[in-house]
Amino acid sequence: LASTDEIRSDDPQRQQHALFLADKVVELFDGGVFVLNSKGTVTATDRKHSDMVGQNLAIAPYFQNTRALRQPTFSDVVLDPARNAQAIVLTAPIISRDGVFQGMVMGVFSLLSQQLGRELQDLRLGEKGLAYIVDRNGRVIFHTTPGQIGQNYSDQLAVDRLQHGEAGGAFLHDDGQRSLYVIGFARVQTTGWGMVIHEPWSE
Questions:
Q1: Is the pLDDT of residue 160 over 70?
Q2: Could you give the dihedral angle defined by the CA atoms of residues 13, 90, 143 and 84, in that order, rounded to the nearest 10 degrees?
Q3: Bridging pattern class, strands 86-95 and 101-110
Q4: Are 186 and 180 spatial neighbours (Cβ–Cβ below 8 Å)?
Q5: H-helix or E-strand containing 74?
Q6: Tens digits of per-residue pLDDT, 64-81?
Q7: Which residues contact 171 (CB under 8 A, 6 or more apart)?
Q8: Taking the mean position of all CA atoms in its chain, how far away is CA 124?
Q9: What is the pLDDT of residue 24?
């Protein structure tokens, strides 16, 4: 979407029209889809978030990172600019044909929607098994127990090992109640997030 002529046009009306036609892209992001110009100002939105037009998000880390890296990025847990709720932002830079940064397209996932962890929900983890994804700061993005979403898991051993540079591994853990768990963890290369799975040894 970010590389289409309509989005690259720098014309808010053409950008708006392009978003209205991109229903299949927009429906992936329950927190909305937005076009920002090179100064971080929202110039176009999906149909549900037109009140965001004109707001400036230049100080947001996801805008600054996208402008600096000029490549698609995933944020850590941030506040959804439209609803002030915890969310993850996926961005794609808008680069002109002569290589100039013109802004970005951003899509927002609400943490509470569980959109980002649907594949993990299908894992067979037994009665006491669980799985979760954390961002680079250790905050839970997805959890098979939804009430844990948004919590900080930096004190969990697997998360601590990920934050200290390990790409993945597994270990046994005794929960102190005569239950032994196998805990596996791995870094998600494209985002820097971590995925952790707990499974009872007996299962």
A1: yes
A2: -50
A3: antiparallel
A4: no
A5: strand 73-74
A6: 999 999 999 988 888 888
A7: 157, 158, 182, 183
A8: 24
A9: 80
- In the prediction, which pLDDT does 124 show? 52
Q: What is the pLDDT of residues 14-58, one digit of tens each?
A: 999 999 888 888 888 888 999 999 999 999 999 999 999 999 999
CB-based contact 82:49 (threshold 8 Å): yes
Does the predicted model carry a pTM greater than 0.90? Answer: no
CA nearest neighbour of 130 among 67, 50, 196: 196
pLDDT of 129 reads: 80
The answer to whether 200 and 181 have CB atoms below 8 angstroms apart is: yes
Length of the chain (residues) = 203
Sign of CA dihedral 46, 49, 53, 59: negative
Instruction: Provide the pLDDT confidence category of residue 125 given band limits of 50, 70 and 90.
Output: low
Distance separating the N- and C-terminal Cα atoms of the chain: 45
Closest CA to 55 of 106, 121, 111: 106
Task: Give me Rg for the CA atoms of the chain.
Answer: 19
90: Cβ–Cβ under 8 A, 6 or more apart, which residues? Answer: 29, 72, 73, 74, 75, 106, 107, 108, 109
Single-letter code of the amino acid located at 102: Q
Beta-carbon contacts of residue 168 (< 8 Å; ≥ 6 apart): 184, 185, 186, 187
